[in-house]
Amino acid sequence: MLKKLMYLIVISLFLISLSNSVLAAENSDLNSKNLNQLFLSGLKDYKAENYALAEQKFIKLLANDNLDSGLEFSSLYYSTKTAIYRNQIAKAVNYLKQMDQIGYQSANLNWEIAKLYLNQKNQYDSADFKMALEYLKKANDLGINQIEFKRDLAYGYLENNKFKKAEKLYKEIIEVKAQASDYLALAKIKEQNKKFKKAINYYENALKLNDSESSLYLNLAKLYQKTNNNKAAILTFKKGINQKADFTPYYIGLAESYFELQNYNEAEKYLKKAIELNNNSYYGYFLLAEVEVEQGRLNLALSNYNQALKYNPNYVEAYLAEGKIYLKEKDYYRAISSFSIAVEKNKDHAASRYYLAKAYYQAEMLEAARAEIKKALHLDNNYPKAREFLEQIEADLNLDKNI
């Protein structure tokens, strides 16, 4: 029995030795003969978009100690590319670092990684513009000069609030091959710098290149509103409606401009259309209530403020507007209720405390009025008429005027 056991042990050791010899021979064969073949096989998988399989083969190559520098670079390059195509930023960055360590750099790979950080295909929850700009700048330093790259670099600067550098690049781009997005970016930069006329000019140029983009009409019309050119805003909103008739912000914008021009009938018409398109538009209901107030229909106004609050229970402006109607109608306790809710929703809002103080004052609750107006002044020492109101309250209470 012992002799048989010894035979089994000897045979097992022989088989293990033989297996190791075969593996060593295979590795030796891979090192000397088949490295190029394995790389070409990985490259074939890469071109066939079998990226996971390609990466496995490139990793196997990179694990080989006898890999020459050319194959090492190529394996790292395509490993980086496979990670990029699979949206694996961490892997791509790691492979790129390994390339840097062996003395190879690639402008295109830095650009491709930057594109992932820009989230151009919406493959992630959000973009990382800071990291995107870091890799875009590396690519730029390595000499890449394509117009599409410049556009990405300009966008990276724009999203990192480096407006001067972004503007310089966008101006270079529009001299070569302009797109609507380039003019839109320049318009936003000018708007940021309060140069509204130049911003309007850029928006108009953007529309010449793309007259079907909803945001262009909306942004241009909003800018006209900002410069008090409501007639131009109305024309622009209507052009937008001709392109996209079911876009609610156009109708809201039209109503705002007509409201500013005191054309309440037109404002009401477009607000009702906006609410028809989006029944949850709390701002639409709020504006409709404002129109009703201007026309003296206070009960209808209260109904619409209530609708606005139904869809946005935190809408402080609606509570204030509601409270002002109650104050006007001398329904002081309802006014106090509305203004108190406004304060509760935003304790740092000076206007809410000012109007709550007014309601308390009208209800002859002078101490409460004094406490609230002092809080309003604490939040905003320059709030209009607040200090005079405090002096009036303290005079009624026969108190000193100091706070």
TrEMBL record:
Gene3D superfamilies: Tetratricopeptide repeat domain. Residues 1-24 form the signal peptide. It comes from the Bacteria. TPR repeats lie at residues 180-213, 248-281, 282-315, 316-349. The keyword Ligase does not apply. Residues 219-388 form the Tetratricopeptide repeat protein 21A/21B C-terminal ARM domain. The keyword Methyltransferase does not apply. Keywords: Signal, TPR repeat. PANTHER family: CELL DIVISION CYCLE 16,23,27 (PTHR12558), CELL DIVISION CYCLE PROTEIN 27 HOMOLOG (PTHR12558:SF13). This is Tetratricopeptide TPR_1 repeat-containing protein.
